Amino acid sequence: MQTVTELVFRLSPPEGFFDETVIRNLLADRSEAARKVLAHRAVAVGEILRLKPGLFLLAPEFRKTHPHPFVIAAILHSPSHVSLESALAHHGLIPEAVFQVSSVTYSRSRTFKTPVGIFSFVRVPAANPKAGVQALKIDGRSWAFVATPLRAIADLIYARKDVSWANDGLAFLTESMRIEREDLEKMAWEGLNEVCESLRDRRTTDYLRGLNREFGK
Questions:
Q1: CA 131, 135, 138: angle at the middle one, nearest 5?
Q2: Of 71, 92, 165, 194, which sits most exposed with the smallest number of CB within 10 A?
């Protein structure tokens, strides 16, 4: 076991996440260059996983728990919430895509290709970023901010600049996204005004209100 791995393993950080500050504190007697070399060696042999510059995760055999991909997404880029196809899949509206976690942020768009998966973050400006976003318990022990079906659709429409209610209507969701009409009929609409007021994008709000006219009660 590499020096860095052994020291972090003894520390037992929550879910196995740690950053450069932890390495700096654990190896305070080493130079910055020496710390980088030791970290690089641990990454090279696969004992620790580099998620992005300065952020690491112990390999599975060195941690007791395995963080849910939604938890990893939140740590990679904050503030953000899981949305788009990932939220729709989580709510059972579309088939689950296991190869990528899609999130929304009001910061800049980013994509991280990591040893544990691909994590994309799409910028969606919002006056109230938490409108239509819930804190959900996702695997019996972890919590993550996840868009409601309504907010996930709103984020999706905003991100798909070529989609509008006038041109595409319901077919975008039922045909392109393969969402069942019956599932759309069951969708909750209580947060519609809050989401529309937060996003303030005419094309997106027109789509949501068109959808509401189709299914709202």
A1: 135
A2: 92
Beta strands (DSSP E) in 53-160 are 55-58, 81-82, 100-105, 110-114, 117-123, 133-137, 143-147
- Taking the alpha carbons of 89, 167, 211, 184 in that order, is the dihedral positive or negative? negative
Q: What contacts 87, CB < 8 A, 6 or more positions away?
A: 102, 146, 147, 148, 149, 151, 152, 155
Q: What CATH number does the domain located at 3-62 have?
A: 1.10.10
Handedness of CA 24, 25, 27, 29 (dihedral sign): positive
**In the block, residue with structure tokens 């973050």:** 121
What is the value of pTM for the model shown? 0.93
**What contacts 167, CB < 8 A, 6 or more positions away?**
none
What is the DSSP code (8-state) at residue 77?
Answer: S
Q: What is the pLDDT of residues 133-180, one digit of tens each?
A: 999 998 878 899 999 999 999 999 999 999 999 999 999 999 999 999
**pLDDT tens, position by position, 93-131:** 998 766 799 999 999 999 999 999 999 999 999 999 999
Task: Supply 173's token pair.
Answer: 């969701």
What secondary structure letter does DSSP report for 64? S
Measure the CA–CA gap between 128 and 33, rounded to whole angstroms. Answer: 43
